[in-house]
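subagent[fold] <- orchestrator: predict structure for attached chain, return tokens only, no commentary.
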Amino acid sequence: MPEKTLVQRYVHILTVVACYWFVSITLVFVNKSLLSGSEKLEAPLFVTCYQCVVTVAACYAIRAAARRFPDRISFPSLELDMNIMKQVLPLSIVFVGMITFNNLCLKNVGISFYYIGRSLTTVFNVLMTYFILGQKTSLSAIGCCGLILGGFYLGVDQEDASGSFSLSGTIYGVLASLFVSLFSIYVKKLLPAVDGNIWALTFYNNVNACVLFLPLMVMFGEIPIVFNFQFLTSINFWFLMTIGGIFGFAIGYVTGLQIQATSPLTHNISGTAKAAAQTVLATHWFMETKSSLWWLSNMVVLGGSLAYARVRQLEMKTNTPDRTVNKV
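subagent[fold] -> orchestrator:
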């Protein structure tokens, strides 16, 4: 196969990045519509559980396609192994906490504030890496975290000043950030249980999550809420629910694709830039007017996140033997 030209490579990279932005932003808007739109269902655990069911179904569909077209599609075997399910269970508990608090945050805050509400993931990454893995962080990286914390505080202050601050939504956002950092640590620890295959881990993780959500839905009284929901037979409602599940599955694929096409650093920068674009889009879509200090808080968080990614890249380069790097 002939090597791609520079133009072809850049077109490929731009296409992949555009797909990542489209899937990620659409997923946020779809979930926001499901959780607080005109046909909202006051059962966030059920909404999240259904999306896990769709992910499991998507895994089976792709596995079936891989059997039919083995030369074009590669996907691991999906035979349930109780041993692996037990090994993956700690990750699944963290995963359930992560997506539940994420959706509860999105339910209680506007999309424009969602990035600020979820901005402490980097700070928790540093803390959890130290307390769980015992790895220390440089002063430069800690300084970047301080910048992020400052932007978060300013954002909360300005959201409160505008009268749209939600304490519960912000707390859910902080908890979601904590669970995101724990999730990344547990993924690294438990990948060997599935021979390093991320798709197998995704499958087992979502199967466990479907089981874990059932007692939680009963405990929080969501079952009667679902059965009495006035839009339960609405095609539009189930269409949005299914789209949310498909995009929830797709985000894992396009994230890996973007890292493969570029580099982990470029992926982080792309994610940060996407968050900025998402914030601007949300303020226009919902016709929100924000103060200069509110926008400054977003810029501080974005700047701190970019600076942290750059600091970590330089530290990794220092600790890694020199080699040729062709990634963008």
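orchestrator: received. Logging for downstream: Residues 6-36 form the longest helix (31 residues). The chain is about 80% helix and 0% strand.
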